[in-house]
Amino acid sequence: MNKDSQDKQTTVGNIDDEILAFTAGKDLVLDLQLAEADCIGSAAHVTMLSRMPVTPPVLTADEAASVCRELALIREQALAETFVIRAADQDVHLAVERTLTEKLGDLGKKIHTGRSRNDQVAVDLRLFAKDRLLELMDDTIGLAEALTAFGERHQKIPMVGRTHMQPAMPSSVGLWATSYAEAVLEDLKSVQHVYTLNDQCPLGAAAGYGVPLPIDRELTSTLLGFARPLHNVAHAIQARGKLEYQILQAMGQLMITLSRIAQDLMIFTLPEFGYFTIPKAFGTGSSIMPNKNNPDVLELIRSKAALVLGYGSTVGHILHSAPGGYNRDLQDAKEPFLEGVATTRASVRILARCVDGLEVHAEKLRGAFSGGVFATDAALALVAKGMPFRDAYHEVKAHLEDLENEDPDEAIALKSHLGATAGLDFELYRERIQEAQDFSSAGRKRFSRAVKELLGDGPKL
Length: 461
Description:
By secondary structure, the protein is mainly α. The protein has helices at about 15-25, 25-30, 35-50, 60-80, 90-105, 105-110, 115-155, 175-200, 215-225, 235-240, 240-270, 295-320, 330-355, 360-365, 375-385, 390-395, 410-415, 425-455; strands spanning about 5-10, 15, 160-165, 165-170, 200, 230, 275, 360.
């Protein structure tokens, strides 16, 4: 051991300062993102303690109210980014407890009754995730709206459909854009699913084995706006990490869709294509080439998709060999989770703005059609006249040069069945978007109401 190493006094005892630095890791910085959630969770916990049927009471109603008032002030500091976690605190939980004890004396020392940092961080992460998932839903809805509106504005503009990146069949800008709108809305279902998994309260599980006190876990869950408490106290602790992994997996699905949109746009905005032009603000210049406006935003969305997928993989690998019960390994799942959430939200918002500002060049899109693109349609036209498909296939293949003068506008107008170029149901997309908005709005109202009742009319969560 380093001979210069010294013990540092902390809330939970003396710890060698080098070991303290190692075990605290990045929590002194990362936990600042959880400070608001820690105040909210603590407010619910002390409110529950004040109603616990024991004599003498752990906290009176007035004492709990005093603690909640101080928690509201700490929350304001957290939102203003002025709250500080000291090295001796180790984490946000003990920093909040220290601050309360400095202000309220013995009252501050009572707030940890009946809980552990295990269930405390678990509820903090779920409160944080609840808020961020609701925000991500709203951001994703905005992207789906942008893609749907773009597709509706340009639904009748022909666009070469591609397989293997090669010209294949007549398509349209409307079909291209709404294919991604639909993908985004499906990804949103995955986000809603993990939101539902997240909407369960672990508080009161303590270290994972409950406590010999008549705590009311259902009350705490209700006070925090959760749908229900997690029932089994051991599972309530063991679900930590697994839940973050599931959330990152859902975000990874969304990021895959974003990356494919970005890749398409990088291809279709090449001078050799010229189908679209991205807003100038979404590119950057070169330090040496005056002519350049590079699609940096789209390239970064592509790379950030890889990062988010990697974050999910990291958390999964941290968990896969862990035994039951709490293990400190989980601390290292925090950073990839927080980074993954922030990265996904930023990517969704920026891509929605890019889609909103896309410029379409109809003449370039029509000019990209060659005769071969109409081959399958021509073969099916012969089938409609009675020719077996395979004979029609070979007949068209032998005379591809006859298709050079086909009209792409007429070709896309002929495909009027469900979901094809002339059969797109934009009202359906709007209905799905409204359903998603209703889901998000209901969750936000319930959560905001719970926070307001605990901590008053503070800044918006």
